């Protein structure tokens, strides 16, 4: 059998390259440092050796483990087992399971040190970094919000700078990798340097070393709000479509309120992490405005966004687990992406030429587009209007705020049958469905589905919809005239106009519509 690959305490499922891999876990990994998500089936973000100990395959003396890659799933549970508390994770793209490895391969691995062990494919892994480009797998724009208050004092302030420096280096800063900046929180926040100022770890390290201690109250809430609002502008170097992250360092406790700042950060699509060091003492607790301040400020109170270090001494071992979190793109639940920041209205032709069975195919198409988006009270929203000569709002953007309910509502739409007045229907939808959400944070899209010539003018109503900030995609079937479809569609018309002869041709268009919505979202996004 193949030689086992010796791995470290921190190797995650997603660091392994093969579908099935034999690995060798070292002895004496510190149990409290393991990140494990799930039970039996583990999210690939989990430490492999941590999962093996959690599931009872090995103990802390290490040993051989066979890792099997599995598909992603939803709702990995939190279970305490064998000294490790696994964490909840709502969704992840891939998973793995662990079983006892074969002992005879263990000997072959002993001769190889952990640091040089390579997945035994004969090929070198892709990790040879182009120095300038940085770590391309870690896409993030990060503000380190450091504590510069009297709470921390000059000496611990210097230890904090060393820690931030180590995190910055391990992130793999580069032109195509993560970019970082620093804001100091004290009485008043001060942006020390922006994302655009440096794109090499050496420069960042130097800039961090040069930071001076400001002193004053730890007005972390004020600093967090200021950073969320001011730091991530395009002119300051924020990049489109890349997660925005603020890592808040807190020594002891904040002297102001963090809850409002946390809300503002979420509205701006910023992912807030809190690294708390040295919990407040009993006397200090009396001064804390809100003991649950961490839970209120982080992006989501799911355990992922809070991180605790007992002191500023000996923090090296905390660097890597924090970096792994900051590089976990899919976990950044507060980022504004096209999937969680759009309103999509479907305008569905219910005229008699469609027919009952084709109408079902139209609803299936609508369902499959809607399914791709993260529908929630703070996420994307879906609405549907059916039209003949008349219009009927099947459901509005605020009626259903879970994906399950939206999909059920689409399935329950009853076919009207009648004439075709598409122009009127567009005006109706612009006014009644998009009107109420026009000042909301989401970008608005209208997908018009029709199978024939409209009896009225479509150009005027479509132009008015676009003027109201709605991007229009037109999807025509069978006898829908191409001129009408183009007249309704947003610019560039070619990429917003779709046509198929048969209703069965709708299904293959689903990915193109989703891609189109995401492209428009990114192009428009600040």
TrEMBL record:
Residues 141-326, 343-513 form the VWFA domain. It is found in: Secreted. GO terms for cellular component: extracellular region. It comes from the Eukaryota. Residues 112-131 are annotated as: Disordered. GO terms for biological process: sensory perception of sound. Keywords: Disulfide bond, Glycoprotein, Repeat, Secreted, Signal. Residues 3-96 form the LCCL domain. Plays a role in the control of cell shape and motility in the trabecular meshwork. This is Cochlin.
